[in-house]
Specification:
heterodimer; A: 327 residues; mainly alpha; 2 domains; two-stranded antiparallel ribbon; 14 helices; 2% strand; B: 292 residues; two-stranded antiparallel sheet; 11 helices; 73% helix
Chain lengths: 327, 292
C-alpha cells in the first residue's frame, strides 16, 4: 500500500473508532453506543496496544526478546500517579514517563546487548522482578500492596477528561499520534535499516549499519512506549497496585505480540485486542482463559509463527495469486 | 560463628537443589539450543505428581516419588521433546522461547485449576531431628538434601564423563554435525538430555517441596534462580551451573539473615547484573565456542 493510502485508511479507522462508544440514535442510526464499562475496555485496549507496539518494535523489528514491558508500564504508571498527586500537570508527567523509561531502557540494554543474543531476555526478566519488589516494598513512595488510589484524570487544554468517553478520545488521540510516529520511523531510512537487519544481519553490518546501536535505540524506544502506556493507564484505572506490573503480565505482553503477529504493523493491535477481550468473553471460566491462551500460543508457534496478521495476509496473498506464483 | 556456619550449611543445601535445576537448563541449551523458560514450572510440577499418586492413587510415599520421577520423564522429558520442542526446533530460538513461556503458564495454571491454589505440605524423606556438633545445629533433613543432591550431581558427572553414552552426549552438545558424521545417534542423545533434565527437575522438586511447600506459583522464583545460576556460572558449562546454584543458595540465606527479607529475592538478580557487566562469560565459562 502506498504511503498516502495507508494514511487515509488510518485516518478513516481513527474516525470509526472515535464513534464506537457514541450513542448514534440521536442522528437516526440504530446504534446505541457503548456503556461505561465497554468504553473502559476499549480504552484499556488502546493503552495495551501502545505498550504492545513497543514490544513489537523490540521483538518483531529488532529481533530481541523483552520480558520487562509490564515493568516499564509500571514505571510510567507510578511516576505519573505520584507526580500528578504532587500537583505536576499531566503533560509533564507523560513526557517524564517517556523520558525516564527511555533512559532506563538504554541503561538496561547497553550491558545486555554487549554480550550475546538472549541475555537481554534474562536481564529484562530480572529487571521486572526487581521493579515489582520496589513497587511492593517501598511503601512510603508507592503505597506498597495497598497501591495508590484516587488518581485524577487530567484535563486537556482546559477541557476536563473525567467523562469516560472524553478520556477515551484523549487516549485515542495519543494512540493515533504514537502509531503514526512508529509508522514514520519504520518507513524512514532508520527503519529500513531494521528490515536489512532482520533479513541479513551480516550484510547489514557490512553496509555500515551499526547493529548494536540500532538495536539499543529500538529497545529503548520500545521501553518508552511502555512508559507512555503506563502514564495513560494510571488515570484510566484511577488506582494502581503492584500486581499488573509483575512478571506474569510482562510475559503476556510478549505473547500477545506474537499471537497478533510480531514484525507486522497491525499485529500489536490484534494481539492487544485478544489479550484484553479474551478474559472478558471467558469471564465465566475465570482463570481458565490463561490455559486456553497458553495452548493457543503453543499451537500458533508450531503452525503459524507469523501470528494472526501473518496468517491473514498469507491467505489474502494466496487468493491474490491463486494462479501460479510461489507456493 | 555458629550461626554463620548454620546458615552456610542450609544455604549449601538449597543451593545444591538450585544447581540441579540449573544443570538441566544448561544441558538443554547445550544439546538442543532450547532455552527452557518453563524450567521453574518443571521443578514445581513433579511434587504435585507425587501428591496425586499419594492422594488419588493411595500409594505410599516412596512409591509415589518413583511414580513422580517416571511420570516426569514421560511428561517433561518425552512429551516436551516431541510435542513442544519437536515442531519448533528448526524455526530458531525465538518461537521456542515463546512456546516454553506459554508452556510455563499452562503448567502453572493447570496445577492451580486442577489441583489447588493453596500451598500443599510435602513430606520429607528424613525427619527434622536436629544434630548439634560443636554448637552448630543441622537438621537431618538438611543433611539428607545435601547428600542426595550431591549424589545426583556426582552421578551425572560420572555419566557424562565416564560412560560411552555420556561422551556421545557431550560430542552432540559441542558439535552435532561432526558427532553425526562420527556415527553418534544425535537424535537419541538429544532425547536422553531431555530425560536427564526431567529427572533433575523431579529430584529438585522432591527435595525443595518439603522446605518451601508445594505451590503452583513456585516456578516463578525457581525458574529465575535456575537461569541466574546458569548464567552466573557460565552458560555453556555444567560445572558453572553447579557453582552458580551453590553460590546463590548461600548468598540467599545469608542475605535473608543479615540484610533484609523484603529484598531477599533481589540478591540473585543483582548478582546477575554484576556478572553480565564484569564477567559476561560467567564465573567458570569460556567465551561461546559454538559457531552458530
Amino acid at each position: 500500500m502506498s504511503a498516502g493510502r495507508s494514511l487515509l485508511v488510518g485516518l478513516a479507522l481513527v474516525a470509526v473508532l472515535a464513534l464506537v462508544p457514541v450513542d448514534l440514535t440521536d442522528i437516526g442510526l440504530p446504534y446505541p453506543g457503548l456503556r461505561r464499562y465497554g468504553t473502559y475496555i476499549l480504552t484499556l485496549w488502546l493503552v495495551t496496544a501502545i505498550a504492545a507496539m513497543g514490544v513489537n518494535l523490540i521483538v518483531g523489528y529488532a529481533g530481541q526478546e523483552t520480558l520487562a514491558q509490564a515493568a516499564f508500564v509500571g514505571i510510567g504508571a507510578y511516576l505519573t500517579a505520584i507526580v500528578t498527586k504532587a500537583g505536576v500537570p499531566f503533560g509533564v508527567a507523560f513526557a517524564a514517563s517517556a523520558l525516564v523509561t527511555f533512559v532506563v531502557g538504554v541503561l538496561l540494554g547497553f550491558p545486555a546487548l554487549r554480550v550475546q543474543k538472549h541475555y537481554l531476555a534474562f536481564v529484562t526478566l530480572a529487571f521486572t522482578v526487581l521493579c515489582w519488589l520496589v513497587f511492593r516494598n517501598e511503601q512510603w513512595l508507592t503505597g506498597g500492596v495497598m497501591g495508590i488510589r484516587d488518581i485524577e484524570r487530567p484535563s486537556f487544554l482546559g477541557w476536563p477528561l473525567r467523562n469516560h468517553v472524553r478520556f477515551y478520545w484523549f487516549v485515542l488521540g495519543i494512540t493515533s499520534i504514537l502509531t503514526f510516529v512508529l509508522w514514520w520511523i519504520l518507513r524512514s531510512p532508520w527503519g529500513r535499516a531494521f528490515t536489512a537487519l532482520r533479513e541479513n544481519p551480516l550484510r547489514a553490518e557490512s553496509l555500515g549499519i551499526d547493529v548494536r546501536l540500532y538495536t539499543l535505540v529500538a529497545f529503548a524506544l520500545g521501553c518508552a512506549y511502555g512508559g507512555m502506556a503506563g502514564s495513560l493507564y494510571a488515570p484510566l484505572v484511577e488506582f494502581i497496585d503492584p500486581s499488573p506490573f509483575a512478571l506474569g503480565p510482562s510475559l503476556l505482553f510478549m505473547l500477545m505480540v506474537v499471537i497478533g503477529g510480531s514484525g507486522t504493523f497491525l499485529g500489536p493491535f490484534v494481539g492487544a485486542g485478544i489479550a484484553v477481550l479474551l478474559p472478558e468473553w471467558l469471564r465465566a471460566w475465570e482463570t481458565w482463559y490463561l490455559l486456553i491462551y497458553a495452548v493457543l500460543v503453543m499451537v500458533m508457534m508450531a503452525f503459524f509463527p507469523g501470528g494472526i496478521v501473518g496468517l491473514l495476509s498469507r491467505l489474502l496473498a494466496r487468493r491474490g495469486t491463486a494462479t501460479g506464483g510461489r507456493p | 560463628m555458629a550461626d554463620f556456619l548454620q546458615l552456610l550449611i542450609s544455604g549449601l543445601a538449597t543451593g545444591a537443589i538450585y544447581a540441579l535445576a540449573a544443570i538441566g537448563f544448561t544441558l538443554l541449551w547445550q544439546t538442543s539450543q532450547t532455552i527452557n523458560f518453563a524450567q521453574g514450572e518443571f521443578v514445581m510440577v513433579p511434587a504435585f505428581l507425587a501428591l496425586i499418586a499419594m492422594r488419588w492413587l493411595g500409594l505410599p510415599f516412596v512409591a509415589s516419588l518413583v511414580v513422580a520421577v517416571l511420570a516426569s520423564m514421560l511428561l517433561l522429558g518425552v512429551a516436551f521433546r516431541y510435542v513442544v520442542v519437536g515442531p519448533l526446533i528448526r524455526r530458531g530460538v525465538l518461537p521456542l522461547v515463546i512456546s516454553t513461556i506459554a508452556l510455563g503458564i499452562l503448567l502453572k495454571e493447570g496445577v492451580k485449576d486442577f489441583y489447588s491454589a493453596e500451598a500443599q505440605s510435602f513430606p520429607t524423606l528424613l525427619p527434622d531431628t536436629l544434630i548439634t556438633v560443636a554448637g552448630v545445629s543441622v537438621s537431618l533433613a538438611q543433611l539428607g538434601v545435601l547428600v542426595v543432591a550431591f549424589a545426583v550431581i556426582g552421578g551425572l558427572q560420572w555419566f557424562l564423563a565416564g560412560t560411552r553414552t555420556g561422551r556421545q552426549m557431550q560430542a552432540t552438545a559441542q558439535n552435532p554435525t561432526v558427532a553425526q558424521i562420527l556415527g553418534v545417534p544425535i537424535e537419541r542423545m538429544i532425547l536422553y538430555t531431555f530425560l536427564i533434565n526431567a529427572v533433575l527437575a523431579a529430584m529438585a522438586s522432591i527435595l525443595i517441596s518439603p522446605i518451601y511447600l508445594a505451590k503452583f506459583s513456585n516456578g516463578e522464583t525457581l525458574g529465575l534462580i535456575a537461569f541466574v545460576a546458569a548464567i552466573v556460572g557460565g552458560f555453556n558449562q555444567v560445572r558453572g551451573a553447579i557453582v552458580g546454584g551453590l553460590l546463590i543458595g548461600v548468598l540467599d540465606n545469608l542475605a535473608a539473615a543479615y540484610v533484609s527479607t523484603a529484598y531477599r529475592q533481589a540478591i540473585p538478580l543483582l548478582l546477575l547484573v554484576l556478572v553480565i557487566l564484569f564477567r559476561p562469560q560467567g564465573l567458570l565459562g569460556r567465551r561461546e565456542e559454538r559457531a552458530v
